[in-house]
């Protein structure tokens, strides 16, 4: 079923050049095709979401580096979503929902792997603290 | 399609399987399969990010990100990749309209942005070596080169794939197979741009912040 919609998406996309853009929403509901508007929207959003974090860090805008870190991580996350939606044309319905399922599964694994590694290794480092020369000397006394 | 003749009178027509699966499914399953490949590639990058997250502050009394990274240069690099993403998008739109020449021009522009990105990255690495920051200097640098280098290697392979496809399109035109290949490369290319968002945020911006 989704395959049929996919094949129709191509020809429908052409209509944009003639009368109006009213029919276009069909074009990016499925598969790899977008429209000029969807690509431009994605591009403009990406530029904004790239410029802000660089500006925050290079201009030293916020005094608190922890806040800056959280803000740039959040902006990076938002930009990734923008890319997935506007450039990769992902939606919950593409390929009958299977790409979305795979994406959710991957994100789950990635979060477990990243958060788990950093968490566990942080505690490991913490418990094996006296590694640098300064501490070793202090302990020796 | 029609099972009505095999059904008992009064019963709804049973549907055992989709009869038109053959012709339509092949393209759809290629895209899904390629998406699954990208997801597994995503896991590779996630392990490299995790490694960097763990080792990224182990300088071994060597240079720190603040000493090494040149943010304006990274901003230019980021711009190259972002421009290449939008130009690839334009190539796809021209492909939809079956305009071979314009598709090729946009693909070539995309390739040039990609080459610029890789060239700038090689220059950055050469500069770091010169500054006394090779991969073997500290755990931070080992994990840095592994993560950023793997991404750069992906982009280089993407450029090679792009060139091969441009030759294919030149030779055979925008046939169904070539369109499918171009769509796979499109996903690959945008995916690499997505990974780069993580790289410049976590490695460069957060590195300089610390």
From TrEMBL, chain B:
It is a multi-pass membrane protein. It comes from the Bacteria. Signal peptide: none annotated. Residues 32-208 form the Heme-copper oxidase subunit III family profile domain. CDD domains: Ubiquinol_oxidase_III. Coiled coil: none annotated. Keywords: Cell membrane, Electron transport, Membrane, Oxidoreductase, Transmembrane, Transmembrane helix, Transport. The chain crosses the membrane at residues 34-54, 74-93, 105-123, 143-167, 188-209. InterPro entries: Cyt_c/ubiquinol_Oxase_su3, Cyt_c_oxidase-like_su3, Cyt_c_oxidase_su3-like_sf, Cyt_c_oxidase_su3_a-hlx, Cyt_c_ubiqinol_oxidase_su3, Ubiquinol_oxase_su3_dom. It is found in: Cell membrane. SUPFAM superfamilies: Cytochrome c oxidase subunit III-like. PANTHER family: CYTOCHROME BO(3) UBIQUINOL OXIDASE SUBUNIT 3 (PTHR11403:SF2), CYTOCHROME C OXIDASE SUBUNIT III (PTHR11403). Cytochrome bo(3) ubiquinol terminal oxidase is the component of the aerobic respiratory chain of E.coli that predominates when cells are grown at high aeration. Has proton pump activity across the membrane in addition to electron transfer, pumping 2 protons/electron. Heterooctamer of two A chains, two B chains, two C chains and two D chains. NCBIfam families: CyoC. Belongs to the cytochrome c oxidase subunit 3 family. This is Cytochrome bo(3) ubiquinol oxidase subunit 3. It comes from Methylobacterium longum.
């Amino acid at each position: 079923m989704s395959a049929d919609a996919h094949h129709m998406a191509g020809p429908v996309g052409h209509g944009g050049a003639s009368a109006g853009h009213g029919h276009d929403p069909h074009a990016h509901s499925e598969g790899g095709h977008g429209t000029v508007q969807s690509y431009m929207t994605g591009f403009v959003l990406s530029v904004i979401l790239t410029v802000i974090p660089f500006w925050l860090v290079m201009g030293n805008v916020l005094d608190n580096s922890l806040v800056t870190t959280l803000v740039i991580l959040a902006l990076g996350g938002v930009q990734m979503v923008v890319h997935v939606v506007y450039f990769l044309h992902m939606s919950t319905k593409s390929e009958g929902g299977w790409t979305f399922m795979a994406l959710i599964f991957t994100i789950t694994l990635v979060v477990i792997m990243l958060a788990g590694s950093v968490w566990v290794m942080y505690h490991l480092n913490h418990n094996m603290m006296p590694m640098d020369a300064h501490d070793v000397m202090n302990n020796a006394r | 399609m029609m099972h009505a003749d095999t059904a008992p009178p009064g019963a709804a027509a049973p549907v055992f399987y989709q009869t038109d699966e053959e012709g339509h499914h092949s393209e759809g399953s290629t895209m899904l399969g390629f998406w699954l490949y990208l997801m597994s590639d995503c896991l590779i990058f996630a392990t490299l990010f995790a490694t960097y997250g763990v080792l990224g502050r182990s300088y071994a009394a060597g240079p720190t990100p603040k000493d090494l990274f040149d943010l304006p240069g990274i901003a230019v690099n980021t711009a190259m990749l972002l421009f290449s993403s939008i130009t690839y998008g334009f190539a796809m739109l021209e492909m939809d309209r079956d305009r071979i020449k314009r598709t090729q021009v946009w693909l070539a522009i995309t390739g040039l942005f990609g080459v610029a990105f890789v060239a700038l990255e090689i220059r950055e690495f050469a500069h770091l070596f010169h500054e006394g920051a090779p991969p073997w200097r500290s755990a931070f640098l080992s994990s840095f080169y592994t993560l950023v280098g793997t991404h750069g290697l992906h982009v280089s392979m993407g450029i090679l794939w792009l060139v091969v496809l441009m030759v294919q399109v030149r030779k055979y035109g925008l046939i169904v197979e070539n369109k499918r290949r171009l769509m796979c490369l499109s996903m690959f290319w945008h995916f690499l741009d997505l990974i780069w968002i993580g790289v410049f945020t976590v490695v460069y911006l957060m590195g300089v912040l610390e």
